[in-house]
Specification:
- The complex is a heterodimer.
- By secondary structure, chain A is of the alpha/beta class.
- Chain A is built from 20 helices and 26 strands.
- In chain A, the strands form 6 sheets. An 8-stranded mixed sheet of chain A has the order 7-6-5-3-4-8-9-18. In chain A, strands 16, 17, 19, 20 and 21 form a 5-stranded antiparallel sheet that branches. In chain A, strands 2-1-11-10 form a 4-stranded mixed sheet, with helices on both faces.
- In chain A, helix 8 links the parallel strand 10 and strand 11.
- Chain B has 10 helices and 10 strands.
- Chain B is globular.
- The chains are: A alpha/beta, B alpha/beta.
C-alpha cells in the first residue's frame, strides 16, 4: 500500500474491505468481552459521520471527546476525520476549567461526552459568563442519570448515530467521497499538551505525520510480523496511546481491547493477555509493586525461591542489557530458561504479559533503570521509548540490539537529531507537527529553521543512544552554583517501594530537600505488619515510624550521590497529589511550580535552620 | 396517584415505652421519601415494622394492597420490598458477585433434578441471574470489585454491595436505613447519586432513614419527621425545613 497518500479513515476503510470479519475492537459489556469487527467499526464511523454532517459539522470544524476510552471515542475520532475535520481529546480527569479552556480555545463545534460526569463539566463551562460561543452540540454516550436534563444542545450519541444510519443507504457515495477528499497533509488530531507550566497548547498533527511515524516504530520492532492484540487503557487524548491504539492499529490491523475502567486495568491485562503493551512508568511501577506485595503475602519458602530467582535474573539481565539485549553466554541462556520454567513463567502469566515479551514499551516519562532491570530479570524485555506530542509520538526507541541501560535508544530512521550548545535536543523530520492551533508565536519558538526544539536536556552515548537528562526548565541551581538535575535524584528515590512521588527542592538554596508522597498501599501494608495503627493516608503520613522508614530509605540513596546532591531534609506530604487540585497533570506529571507555591510553608520550614552536620 | 406504601397509624410499645405512636404517611411510586428525626425518635422501629421484623401493637402498613407489617419476614423480598440495615449486613466472606446472587435467590427458582446436574433450564436461569448481577455491577460502578471478598472492602464499598444485594431482589420499594452514616463526603455524594438513579432509571421507590440533612434536603421528594415516636411534620423538604416544630425538635428550642 502507498502509505504516503493514505489517511487514517482511508486505512480503516481498507481493513473493512480487506478483512471485514477480523476483530478490530473488544469491549467488556456486562462482564463479557464483545467483539466489533473492522466492517462494523467502519460502518459505525460512516453512520456517525453522516449524523455529524446532518448537524452541520464541516471539514473546517473540530470535534472534542471527553470520555474514558471506549469504542465511541474512536468512532468520534474517525468520523470527524472522515469529514475532513480534526479530533481533540480531553482528559476525563480534567476539572471543568480545563475543559472550558480547551473547548473555548479550539472553538470546537461538537463535543462528545462519555457520561453524566463529563457532560456536567461542559454544562458548567457553558453556564459561565460568555459561555462557549462556538459550541453547537453536546453528544452524550451513556445517558444514565440524565433523564431530567433539558439543555437544548444536548443529544444522545445513539440518536445521532441512528440519524446517520437512516441516511446511509442513500448517502453511502457521499461519505465515500468525503473520505476520498481528505488530504494526508490535513490535520487529523489536535493534542493539547498537558503543560507542567503555562496554559495548554494545541499541537496539530497531520495524517501523514502520524502514519509515517507509526510505520517507523513498526518497522524497527517488526510489529507487523503477527496480528497484534493490545489493551487501550492510557488516555486516548495522549499522543502515545493514539499512536499505538489508533494509528498503529489501522496500519497493522490490530485488535484493540478497551479496559473496562481505570480501576480494572490490572485485571483486564490478565484477561486479555495482549501480545504487545505500552506502559508509562507509573503503570510499570504499579505492576512491579503488585508482584512485590504478592510475594510478601506468600509463605517463607516460595518467597525465598522467588526472591533468589529474581536476584539471579537481575545478574543475567545486567549482562544482557550490556550486550544489546541478547544473552551474553550460553550459560546465561540456560540458567534463564530454567528460571523461566520454574518461576518467571508464572509471574509473567500472573500479570498477563506472558505473550508480550519483546514487544513491551515504556514511554511518557523517564523510568527508573532499577524498574526496567526488574522486568528484564523476569524475562520481560521492556524497551524505553522517547517521543513528544510535537513529533507525532516516538522518535527514539531501544530495541533488540541496542539496550544501553538508562537510555531511550537511538533515533528512528527518518529523524535527524542534534544537541545545541546548551545541550538541548533538537529534531527534524517530515513527522514534525504542523504548529500550535491559533498560536503562531509558540510555533515559531518551537520550530526554528525547521528544527523542533524539544525543551529536553540530553546527551548521547557513543552508539547514538539518547539519554534524557531533564526538562530544560527544571534544572535547578543551588546557591553554591551547582547544577542539579532533579529527575535523576527523584527517580532514584522513587525506586524505594515506599516512596510514590518525590519532588526535589533547592533552587537558590544552600542544600537540597525533598517533598515525599509515600505509597499508601505499600506503606500501609508495612504498617499493618508492624501493628502500627492508621486510619487513612494523612494519619499514615504523620506517623513517626513512617518518617523513620523514609529517612532510612533516603539515607541509603544519599550514600550513592555526591554530597551536594544529598537530600538533607524531607517532609512527607499530608495528602496525595491530585489532578483535581492542580498538583499533577492528567498524565500524573508533577507540576513543580504549583507544588512549590502550594506547599511553600512546608518548604520554608525545611530551610528554617541549617541541618545539624552541615 | 395511588400510594405504593400506605403507613396507617402504626404504633409500637415495648412494655410501657411508646416507641412509635400512630404514625401515618404515604410513599408514592418511584419517589424518594425520607424519615428523619432525633436519636430515639422511633425511626428504626418504624422501619422494622414495615419490613415485618417487629409486629406492630396497632395500625398497618399496606404495600401493593396487602398489610406487609404482618407478613412473614422472609416473604418480603418476594412481595417487592428490599432493604439495607443500619449496621452492615453483608456476607463478608463471600465475593461481591456471590453477595448479589444471594439477593436474587428467591427469583431464580428451579427443581432438584435439573439443578443437580446443572442442565437445561437451570443453566439458562443461572446465566440470566449472572447477567442481572452484571447489570447491577455496572449500575453501581463496581466492575473492579467483582471477585473481591466483601470483607476486604472499605466500609463505603461494602455499603454499596449491600445496596446492590437489595437491588438484586428486584424490589418496587427499597428501605435504606442510614445508608451514609460513617461515610466520607465523596462516598456520600456517590450514594446520593445512586439513590437518584435508582428512582429515575429503575423507577424504584426509596424510603430512607437518614441523619445527613444535606442528602435528605437535596434528593428527597417528601420528608416525614418523627419526634418521640410521633409524626410532627410531613411534606416537601422545603415545607419541612420551615416548620417551627421541626426546628424545635432539631435545635431543642424552648
Amino acid at each position: 500500500m502507498d502509505y504516503d497518500s493514505q489517511t487514517i479513515p482511508g486505512l480503516l476503510r481498507h481493513w473493512a474491505r480487506a478483512r471485514p470479519d477480523a476483530v478490530a475492537l473488544r469491549e467488556k459489556d456486562l462482564g463479557i468481552w464483545k467483539r466489533i469487527t473492522y466492517a462494523d467499526y467502519f460502518e459505525r464511523v460512516c453512520e456517525l459521520a453522516l449524523g455529524l454532517d446532518a448537524l452541520g459539522f464541516t471539514g473546517d470544524d473540530f470535534l472534542c471527546v471527553a470520555s474514558e476510552n471506549t469504542p465511541e471515542w474512536m468512532y468520534g475520532d474517525l468520523a470527524a476525520q472522515s469529514l475532513g475535520g480534526a479530533c481533540i481529546g480531553i482528559y476525563p480527569t480534567s476539572p471543568w476549567p480545563e475543559v472550558k479552556y480547551i473547548l473555548e480555545h479550539s472553538r470546537a463545534r461538537v463535543v462528545v461526552c462519555g457520561d453524566q460526569e463529563q457532560t456536567d463539566k461542559v454544562l458548567e463551562a457553558l453556564a459561565q459568563p460568555g459561555g462557549l460561543p462556538e459550541l453547537r452540540h453536546i453528544l452524550c454516550v451513556d445517558m444514565k442519570g440524565m433523564r431530567d436534563y433539558a439543555h437544548p444542545m444536548l443529544k444522545s450519541f445513539a440518536e445521532v448515530l441512528a440519524q446517520g444510519r437512516a441516511r446511509i443507504a442513500a448517502d453511502r457515495a457521499l461519505i465515500e467521497a468525503r473520505i476520498d477528499a481528505v488530504k494526508p497533509s490535513d490535520t487529523a488530531v489536535i493534542v493539547y499538551t498537558s503543560g507542567t507550566t503555562g496554559l495548554p497548547k494545541g499541537a496539530m498533527l497531520s495524517h501523514r505525520g502520524l502514519i509515517a511515524n507509526a510505520r517507523r516504530m513498526i518497522a524497527r520492532h517488526g510489529l507487523d510480523r503477527r496480528p497484534l492484540s493490545m489493551l487501550a487503557y492510557l488516555p486516548l487524548c495522549h499522543v502515545a496511546e493514539r499512536e499505538f491504539s489508533t494509528v498503529m492499529q489501522l496500519i497493522n490491523g490490530t485488535t484493540v481491547s478497551f479496559a473496562e475502567s481505570i480501576d480494572t486495568v490490572l485485571q483486564d491485562l490478565r484477561e486479555v493477555a495482549p501480545n504487545a503493551f505500552l506502559g508509562v512508568p507509573r503503570i510499570w511501577e504499579k505492576l512491579q509493586s503488585t508482584i512485590t506485595v504478592r510475594l510478601l503475602d506468600t509463605r517463607p519458602l516460595p518467597r525465598k525461591v522467588a526472591e533468589t530467582a529474581i536476584e539471579a535474573g537481575k545478574r543475567i539481565a545486567d549482562r544482557r542489557l550490556a550486550n544489546g539485549g541478547r544473552f551474553a553466554s550460553l550459560r546465561d541462556r540456560l540458567v534463564h530458561a530454567f528460571l523461566w520454567l520454574t518461576v518467571f513463567r508464572s509471574l509473567q502469566t500472573w500479570v498477563g504479559l506472558n505473550r508480550a515479551g519483546g514487544r513491551l514499551f515504556c514511554g511518557g516519562a523517564p523510568i527508573s533503570p532499577e524498574v526496567l532491570r526488574f522486568y528484564w530479570a523476569i524475562g520481560l524485555e521492556i524497551y524505553q521509548i522517547f517521543g513528544m506530542t510535537e513529533t507525532c509520538g516516538a522518535t527514539h526507541t531501544q530495541f533488540m540490539g541496542s539496550t544501553v541501560h538508562g537510555s531511550c535508544g537511538p533515533a528512528l530512521d527518518g529523524w535527524e537529531e542534534k544537541l545545541t550548545d546548551d545541550g538541548e535536543l533538537v529534531l527534524r523530520s517530515d513527522a514534525v507537527f504542523s504548529g500550535y492551533l491559533y498560536n503562531e508565536e509558540a510555533t515559531r519558538e518551537a520550530i526554528v529553521d525547521g528544527w523542533l526544539h524539544s525543551g529536553d536536556i540530553a546527551r548521547r552515548s557513543a552508539d547514538g543512544s539518547l539519554f534524557i537528562t531533564d526538562r530544560k526548565k527544571d534544572v535547578l541551581i543551588t546557591s553554591g552554583g551547582k547544577n542539579i538535575t532533579p529527575s535523576l535524584i527523584e527517580n532514584r528515590l522513587k525506586d524505594s517501594p515506599y516512596i510514590r512521588e518525590a519532588i526535589l527542592i533547592g533552587e537558590g538554596r544552600k542544600f537540597l530537600t525533598a517533598l515525599i508522597q509515600i505509597d499508601y498501599e505499600v506503606v500501609g501494608k508495612w504498617a499493618q505488619s508492624l501493628g502500627i495503627a492508621y486510619t487513612n493516608y494523612a494519619s499514615l503520613a504523620r506517623n513517626a515510624e513512617v518518617e523513620a522508614l523514609v529517612q532510612a530509605e533516603i539515607d541509603r540513596f544519599n550514600g550513592e550521590f555526591a554530597r551536594v546532591e544529598n537530600v538533607r531534609r524531607f517532609a512527607i506530604l499530608q495528602k496525595e497529589l491530585d489532578h483535581d487540585d492542580g498538583e499533577v497533570t492528567a498524565t500524573m506529571k508533577v507540576r513543580r511550580r504549583s507544588i512549590e507555591k502550594k506547599f511553600a510553608d512546608i518548604i520554608d520550614a525545611l530551610y528554617a535552620s541549617q541541618p545539624a552536620e552541615a | 396517584m395511588s400510594a405504593l406504601l400506605s403507613v396507617e397509624g402504626l404504633s409500637k410499645s415495648f412494655g410501657g415505652v411508646h416507641a412509635v405512636r400512630g404514625v401515618s404517611f404515604d410513599v408514592a411510586p418511584a419517589s424518594i421519601h425520607s424519615v428523619i428525626g432525633p436519636n430515639g425518635a422511633g425511626k428504626t422501629t418504624l422501619f422494622n415494622m414495615i419490613s415485618a421484623l417487629v409486629k406492630p401493637s396497632s395500625g398497618r402498613a399496606v404495600f401493593d394492597g396487602r398489610d406487609v407489617s404482618r407478613a412473614r419476614p422472609h416473604h418480603l423480598a418476594r412481595l417487592g420490598i428490599g432493604r439495607t440495615f443500619q449496621n452492615l449486613a453483608v456476607f463478608s466472606h463471600a465475593t461481591v458477585v456471590e453477595n448479589l446472587l444471594v439477593g436474587m435467590h428467591h427469583r431464580i427458582g428451579g427443581n432438584v433434578l435439573s439443578d443437580g446436574v446443572f442442565f437445561g433450564s437451570t443453566r439458562a436461569r443461572e446465566i440470566r441471574a449472572r447477567e442481572e448481577v452484571e447489570r447491577i455491577i455496572e449500575f453501581l460502578e463496581i466492575e473492579h470489585l467483582r471477585n473481591e471478598v466483601v470483607g476486604m472492602l472499605s466500609y463505603g464499598l461494602q455499603k454499596r454491595v449491600e445496596l446492590g444485594r437489595a437491588l438484586a431482589t428486584g424490589p418496587k420499594l427499597l428501605l435504606l436505613d442510614e445508608m451514609v452514616s460513617g461515610m466520607n463526603t465523596e462516598e456520600t455524594e456517590d450514594i446520593a447519586r445512586f439513590i437518584l438513579d435508582i428512582k429515575q432509571e429503575l423507577s424504584i421507590a426509596v424510603l430512607m432513614i437518614e441523619h445527613d440533612m444535606s442528602i435528605v434536603m437535596d434528593i428527597s421528594d417528601r420528608v416525614t419527621v418523627l419526634s418521640f415516636g410521633e409524626r410532627i411534620a410531613d411534606g416537601t423538604p422545603g415545607e419541612v425545613a420551615a416548620d417551627p416544630r421541626v426546628i424545635d425538635a432539631y435545635l431543642g428550642g424552648a
